[in-house]
Amino acid sequence: SAVISQKPSRDICQRGTSLTIQCQVDSQVTMMFWYRQQPGQSLTLIATANQGSEATYESGFVIDKFPISRPNLTFSTLTVSNMSPEDSSIYLCSVGQGINSPLHFGNGTRLTVT
Amino acid sequence: EDQVTQSPEALRLQEGESSSLNCSYTVSGLRGLFWYRQDPGKGPEFLFTLYSAGEEKEKERLKATLTKKESFLHITAPKPEDSATYLCAVQADGNNRLAFGKGNQVVVIP
Q: pLDDT digits over B7-37, tens only?
C-alpha cells in the first residue's frame, strides 16, 4: 500500500491563526480525502481533494474555513483557517486507488488551539 | 444517512480470552464494510473489507464476518499486542465516502 506522510505531526496554535497541513504520497493515487477525528467521536469526512479542481466538501464544512489544494496525484494540503479551540482535533489524510479499494491513512496531525 | 454503531465501546480482556466486537450498520446499498485498527498516535490501519452477507475474512487472531445488518470482529486468544481501537466503516453504492463508527477500544491484559 502507499506510504503517506503528513506534516506537521502535531502543532499548538493560537486562536485566529491558520495552519496548513501537508499530505505527501509515495505513489500516484486516484482519491485523496481529509478526515477529522475528535476525542470520543467518529472519523468525520471533511472533503474530497480533487486533482486540478475545487475540493468537494461535506455538509458542515466550508471552503473558507478549510481550503484544500491538490496540485497533482501525490500531494494535497488542508488549511485550517481562523482557528478556534473547537478546531482542536486530529486531522487525517487518506488515499485510495479506486472505488473498490480500501482507504489508507496517514498518521495524522494533532492540532491544539489555545 | 449511513450510520454505524459499534459495541462495546471499551473492552478489557485477559490474554487468551476470546471475544467479539459488534458493528451494526444502516446504509442505502452496501458496497463494502471495512475494519481498521488504530493504535494511539497513529492513523487507522486497514484490516479487512467485506462485500456481501456470509463473507468471512481472517488475519492471524482476527476474523471478520458480515450479515445484512451487522459485522463481527472475533478476536481469538488475544495477546497484549492486539490492544488497539478497532474501527468499522461502511461504503454505500455510488459513493467514495466511508462512514465510520466510534470504535471499540480493546485492552488485553497479560
A: 999 999 999 999 999 999 999 889 999 999 9
Contact predicate B32/B51, CB 8 Å: yes
C-beta separation of B6 from B88 below 8 A: yes
Q: Kindly state the average pLDDT of the residues B45-72.
A: 96
Chain B partners within 8 Å of A103 (Cβ) = 34, 46, 98
Q: Are B41 and B35 in contact (CB under 8 A)?
A: no
Say yes or no for a CB contact (<8 Å) between A45 and B102.
Answer: no
Give, rounded to a whole angstrom, the gap between the first and last alpha carbons of chain A: 36
CB-based contact A96 B44, cutoff 8 Å:
no
CA B18: distance to chain centroid? 15
DSSP string covering A75-103: EEEEEE-S--GGG-EEEEEEEESSTTSPP
Could B31 and A100 be called an inter-chain contact, meaning their C-beta atoms sit closer than 8 Å?
yes
User: Above 90 in pLDDT, residue A101?
Assistant: no
